[in-house]
Specification:
This protein has 2 domains: 160 residues, Lyase, Ornithine Decarboxylase, Chain A, domain 1; 173 residues, Alanine racemase (TIM Barrel), CATH 3.20.20. Helix content is 28%, strand content 25%. The strands form 3 sheets. Strands 4, 14, 15, 16, 17, 18, 19, 20 and 21 form a 9-stranded mixed sheet that branches. Helix 2 runs parallel beside helix 9 and helix 5 packs across helix 6. It is globular and about 70 Å long. The structure holds ligand LLP.
Length: 419
């Protein structure tokens, strides 16, 4: 199976043309490695699909919020989709123009709303009537007009993991379709909000995009309703395009965007910018996670490779039973051992793979866990008081740059107060 930028050259695993044995020698493990080349290729694919249509990409910062990653996105002209004050802070630190930032999320606090208003962000994606009123109130007290769009819950099954489905009626996200028109009217009545559009996001890791097309189809109804009252400046169609972790076959971004474009009613969208919020499909394939075998043990009839990375560094396998391809840094052809790859955390749920066919390896050998650029580091924690791993970027000139230092023990207790 092919993964972008991944190949063995003379028996050594390379990522984006860089031999990974050198990377582990210089930066140690556990370690996240990203490739700027792959990020740029994924963005280019989106841009080819967009052609000259009025579509603005807003990178979904939650997928990977490292400042240097955000900076690549903004240099490529992308805006940002954020879900917290912390993500707003990161965007501002990276110099992302505030007028390209959309703020989504069901639970924005007063402080976050105030912060975003003061920074003059492009749009609040509003998820409830109470939130709409709250934004109006805060904008009033700051003598501002808040730009808002309504997030609808279109009740569509994205056919993905239940934890990352967001557009079904039982999910907490968005406003139900039957309330849409009333919420439009309410927003128009409120003095300190300006209603600019609506949007939806139905889920993540969507491999079969028929649900995305169905949502675009369904949006025609909302477009009509909205336009009875107001010019539609923004239609936010969310993110969610899936990627290959194992043998999935999602469309390339270009193909995906072209399909969506072919469905949207452009006659009705003369004044409208379409917002797209990709996260995983840009950064997911552009990252790998490197880890070293500490110990090998055979318990009863089971073989365990115990590695120095753990669920605190990369939680997707434990949390979603997610599959990530695993390759040894030194090439081997006999994938003939059935092993569990587990970390040092004191939980049985701490594994990267179970019953995986891998070669016979030795202690101190290394692995690359693929497709970990999205929802990898950002979901890491210090559980078991494990300092978080470092992150490096292979830049477009093939130079390796440290973009986050490995945490230290001091970092673990930095905010603690010993009384
Ligand atoms: N826009 C909104 C409003 C979202 O909630 C999300 C993701 C995105 C855009 C970006 O979706 P993407 O293009 O990355 O699929 N931790 C999970 C994924 C959670 C996704 C949450 N929302 C995982 O590791 O699979």
């Amino acid at each position: 199976m092919e993964f972008p930028g991944i190949q063995y050259i003379k028996g050594i695993l390379h990522f984006s043309d860089v031999p990974l044995n050198e990377v582990v020698n210089n930066y140690k493990t556990p370690l996240y490695v990203y490739s700027e080349d792959i990020i740029l290729k994924r963005i280019e694919s989106y841009k080819r699909g967009i052609q000259n249509y009025p579509v603005q990409l807003c990178y979904s910062v939650k997928a990977n919020s490292n400042l240097s990653i955000i900076k690549i996105m903004l240099k490529e002209g992308l805006g940002a989709d954020i879900v917290s004050g912390g993500e707003l802070f990161r965007c501002i630190k990276a110099n992302m123009p505030a007028n390209k930032i959309v703020f989504s999320g069901v639970g924005k606090t007063e402080e976050e709303i105030e912060y975003a208003l003061k920074e003059d962000i492009m749009l609040f994606s509003v998820e409830s009537i109470s939130e709409l009123k709250k934004i109006n109130e805060i904008a009033h007290s700051l003598q501002k007009i808040a730009p808002v769009s309504i997030r609808v819950n279109p009740d569509i099954d994205p056919k993905t993991h239940p934890y990352i489905s967001t557009g079904l009626k039982e999910n907490k996200f968005g406003i139900s379709s039957n309330l849409f028109e009333n919420v439009v009217k309410l927003a128009l009545d409120l003095k300190n909000v300006e209603l600019l559009g609506f949007g939806y996001h139905i889920g993540s890791q969507i491999v079969d995009i028929s649900s995305k097309l169905e949502a675009a189809e369904k949006s025609k109804f909302f477009i009509e309703t909205f336009k009875k009252y107001k010019t539609l400046k923004f239609l936010d169609i969310g993110g969610g395009l899936g990627i290959r972790y194992k043998n999935e076959n999602p469309p390339e971004p270009e193909e995906f965007v072209r399909s969506i474009i072919s469905i949207l009613p452009w006659n009705e969208l003369k004044d409208t910018t379409i917002l797209l919020e990709p996260g995983r499909s840009i950064i997911g394939p552009a990252g790998i996670f490197l880890t070293k075998i500490l110990y090998i043990k055979e318990n009863y009839h089971k073989l365990f490779y115990i590695v120095d990375g753990a669920m605190n560094d990369l939680i997707r396998p434990s949390l979603y039973q997610a599959y990530h391809e695993i390759l040894p840094l030194i090439e081997s052809t006999d994938f003939n051992r059935n092993v569990d790859i587990v970390g040092p955390v004191c939980e049985t749920g701490d594994f990267f793979a179970r019953d995986r066919q891998l070669p016979q390896l030795k202690e101190n050998d290394y692995f690359a866990i693929l497709t970990t650029g999205a929802y990898g580091f950002v979901m890491s924690s210090q559980y078991n008081s494990r300092p978080r791993p470092a992150e490096v970027l292979i830049d477009r000139n093939k130079k390796i740059k440290l973009i986050r230092k490995r945490e230290t023990y001091e970092d673990l207790i930095y905010k603690e107060i010993l009384i």
